[in-house]
Amino acid sequence: MVMKIMRRPNWILALLIAAPALVHVPPVESARLKDVVEIEGVRDNPLTGFGLVVGLNGTGDSGAAFTNQSLKMMLERMGISAEQGVKVKNVAAVMVTATLPPFARQGSRLDVTLSSLGDAKSLQGGTLILTPLKGADGRIYAVAQGPLVVGGFSAEGGGASVQKNHPTVGRIAGGATVEKEIEFELNKEQQLQLSLRNPDFTTANRIVQSINDVFGKPLANARDSGTILLTVPADYQGRVVNFVSRLEGVQVDPDQRARVVVNERTGTIVMGENVRVSTVALAHGGLSIKVKETPKVSQPNMLAQGKTTVTPDTNIQAVEKDARVLEMEEGVTLGDLVRGLNSVGVTPRDLIAILQSIKAAGALQADLEIL
Fold it and tell me: How far is the C-alpha of 238 from the C-alpha of 47, rounded, in Å?
């Protein structure tokens, strides 16, 4: 069977059943500059720390050596002598993480997340002891402490257990206090560097043109597809915040490469508007093999000296569906192809295999990304 797929009027395409696992991305409209680029130096910074959670109801670490060692060191700093082999089930070692936002000042509060490191069963009802949080440079930027909240629970008895959500991860809202600021004075900058979230030469060129048109001066210059250098105008010197505020509202039409994203685990396909398929013909047939085994037991009489034997009775059936040949004309979009294939009963899994074959043949004019 030969099926020819060509460009059809929209009213005919509307009659075809769309593939259930296909997501079509509409054309990109104008976007604000603040949603397309980031300013160098204006970024979040991750913080991490090692701490102890106390006050647990026997659900803490039971055999973690680093928990006992940390507890002993903490008690010694408080002037309390502790034995080396101390074991306390009301204490759990946790990794504390937080995000330091740009321009955070001393005294600002941060949310922290606590994750169990040992074999603790639950962190519910615990309190985090004073924990320093360090950045990538090893310096302390914040300290965390306070009672944590766990969005789950666990309970167990002699032969049964129940658990809801994840009881070994907790959170403290505003549980960290910023102690050290990151030195960055935006108002003293005379030149800004913009980084595109999705590098593209066309998008970078459009950003440069839009900025220069809005301010009426050649302030922007593209270094490459992902970086734009921007000179702060003389009338905005010392008022860079006002300049950035006006800059963020500049409208830009971002461009993107033709791309098809395929998730084989879920059968999901996401495609862009500019994806095209060159002239190609394909045949796709299904082969179904069914193997069924029925064991047969041969058992001797009670007084016989023979042995019981099991002989499998195997039945194999193979069914191969007739292959359907599809011919696609040049200029057909991937949406036309998918709708045509879906109309003849191609499943999402088969569609993924077909897309991979078309890409290998060089007929898919787009990047194929397999997740």
Answer: 31
Residue 65 CA, distance from chain mean position: 34
Backbone φ and ψ for 227, nearest 5 degrees, come out as -135, 135
Question: Per residue in 155-188, pLDDT tens?
Answer: 665 555 666 667 889 999 999 999 999 888 888 8
pLDDT band, residue 105 (cuts 50/70/90):
very high
E-strand spans in 101-248?
Answer: 109-116, 127-134, 140-147, 149-150, 153-156, 161-164, 169-178, 191-196, 220-222, 227-231
Contacts of 106 (CB under 8 A, 6+ apart): 178, 179, 180, 181
Which band of pLDDT confidence, cut at 50, 70 and 90, is reported for residue 365? confident
Beta bridge partners of 311: 296
Fold of 31-41+185-252: Aspartate Aminotransferase, domain 1 (3.90.1150)
Tokens found for residue 200: 């593209």
Return the residue matching tokens 């994806």.
275
Torsion of CA 86, 90, 91, 92, to 10 degrees: 120
CATH 3.90.1150 in the chain: give the residue spans. 31-41+185-252
pLDDT(207) > 80? yes
Q: Please report the pLDDT score of residue 18 as a whole number.
A: 36
Whole-angstrom distance between the N-terminal and C-terminal Cα of the chain? 33
Structural contact between residues 123 and 90, judged by C-beta atoms closer than 8 angstroms: no
Q: Which residue from 184, 166, 176, 170 is spatially nearest to 98, judged by alpha carbons? A: 176
pLDDT of residue 25: 46
CA 230 to CA 219: how far, in whole Å? Answer: 6
Rounded Cα gap, residues 146 and 126, in angstroms:
9
pLDDT of residue 37: 93
